[in-house]
Amino acid sequence: TALLDRQRELPFGSKLQNHALNHRLNEEFRKYFPEIEYIPILRDIRENRYWFNENLLKIKVGTRTHNIAQATIEIIDHYVQAKVIAFQSFIETCERLKAISDENDLAVSQFIEGLLAPNADARIFEIVSYAILRFYYHDQIVYFGFDLAHIKSENLQLFKTGRTNANDGGIDFVMRPLGRFFQVTETLDVKKYFLDIDKIDRFPISFVVKSMDDGDTIRQRLHEGAQRLYSINAIVEKYMACIEEIINIPILINCFRTSWAQGYLRQILDEIILQSKVEFNYENVG
Fold it and tell me: What digits encode the pLDDT tens for the residues 32-55?
């Protein structure tokens, strides 16, 4: 559609998928503006075409109605430019830290830990979480075999399933050979957790949470939210049992410091740079 084509022309937009332009946008809008009767994206299913709901662009002041479409476009353009500048600055900082000598590892570590702050950009947080956990797990060994005479050792490997805004089916990272699933989130909305669990048919999943709260507190808040949502305790317990592990910011920092002590600081930084360029389609930004 023309709307999708236009958004793919913008910085960071070349990999956008249709699902991010209709259902997800409409659901996010409903979440933040439940009192408004309109939704942003209208769709003609028969023609498979999309429109932006112009009712949301018309503002009545006194007896006059103003269409703020042009002003909205200008705001978006300025926002995009600000994001481009911020991201380019982020990449330049990463590259500069990559170039400094090993004696300045403390500066690199402080920079990386700063990216795990509760107010950090959600996509950067996911990328940094992946880089840290990848090198935290990759020296850990498990043993597999079909019988005792044929046991072999394998290192744990963590893989990223795609971009942060991809339709990944509720999985952000997957671990071989254990088959563990990880989902990164910044919310404690129990419906979001249970939706992710349902996406993978209630298979156990570990949540990487952008929160300083300890794991027990997060579990308790989710449990309380689930009890308010469902009246049947058996349903609540079935969902809660699917939460394999809660990995919060303090745990991520501990994992990072362990990997740093093992000599993987520079590899973690390299992975952050690589994944950030992929995520933000860096070659086409500017």
Answer: 898 999 999 888 777 777 788 999
